[in-house]
Design goal:
With about 220 residues, this protein is α+β, with helices and mostly antiparallel strands. It has a single domain, classed as 3-Layer(bba) Sandwich (Phenylalanyl-tRNA Synthetase, Chain B, domain 3). Helices cover about 35% and strands about 15% of the residues. It has a 4-stranded antiparallel β-sheet, with helices on one face. A 4-stranded mixed β-sheet has the order 2-5-6-7. Helix 2 packs parallel to helix 6 and helix 6 packs antiparallel against helix 7. The protein is globular. The termini are close together.
Length: about 220
């Protein structure tokens, strides 16, 4: 995976942010991209080789110094602003690097998961994937209502009030930086997908576009 060129744009979309959230976090952004794909047609061996190469680039020294890098540091700061201790609830990039150290490498977990992990390790920007056929309107960020379900499935867990969530027009679909709603995740049978990421203060739009570009190009077979 390499950085995007200026003539290879993606069709990204800026999500909505509820007024109460926008007042408190005016620089918080959700950016998404829609695409069509056949995950099963993507070669897994090349992706596994790429993960192996990424594993070789990550060592203990990189892990120790990670939080000093601009993008990881920005997500750590934002975690504290929303009441999360990043030393307890780790940012996505720090969680991925710690898992690599514990496992001795980035272990293959499935084509989509591996693609999202590769983009995360390359850019430090997390990207999530939802099944577009299970969405109701554009994505945005709002506060949860006490007792509302996370998603529309019968297995949906209940949320406490006041949590930051990613939502469509009728349901919460993910806890911000947390779990996706059961039944709404993209999977191997997904053909229409929505990728989304979260931009916080200190993370440039270039990093955001690069992470989405990496995932989009790989999933569309570019």
């Amino acid at each position: 995976m390499t950085a995007p060129e200026a003539d290879t744009p993606i069709n990204s979309e800026l999500g909505w942010v509820d007024g109460e959230v926008r007042d408190e976090f005016p620089e918080l952004r959700l950016i998404s991209a829609q695409l069509q794909t056949d995950i099963n047609s993507i070669g897994s061996r090349a992706l596994e080789r790429h993960l192996s190469g990424l594993s070789n680039r990550i060592n203990g020294a990189r892990a120790v110094n990670l939080r000093r890098e601009p993008v990881p540091a920005a997500y750590r700061i934002f975690f504290r602003h929303i009441g999360l201790d990043p030393d307890v609830t780790r940012t996505p990039i720090e969680a991925a690097i710690l898992e690599r150290l514990l496992d001795g490498g980035f272990l293959p977990r499935g084509t989509l998961e591996d693609l999202l992990l590769s983009a995360l390790v390359e850019t430090s920007v997390p990207v999530w994937a939802l099944d577009r056929d299970h969405l109701d309107g554009p994505l945005g960020i709002r506060l949860s209502r006490a007792g509302e379900p996370l998603g529309r499935s019968e297995e949906a867990p209940e949320l406490t009030g006041g949590q930051l969530v990613v939502a469509d027009s009728s349901a919460a679909l993910a806890v911000l930086f947390g779990e996706l709603a059961p039944g709404h995740e993209a999977h191997t049978e997904t053909r229409r997908m929505v990728l989304f990421t979260v931009q916080v203060p200190g993370v440039s739009s270039l990093h955001i576009e690069e992470a989405l570009w990496m995932c989009t190009c790989a999933l569309e077979g570019a």
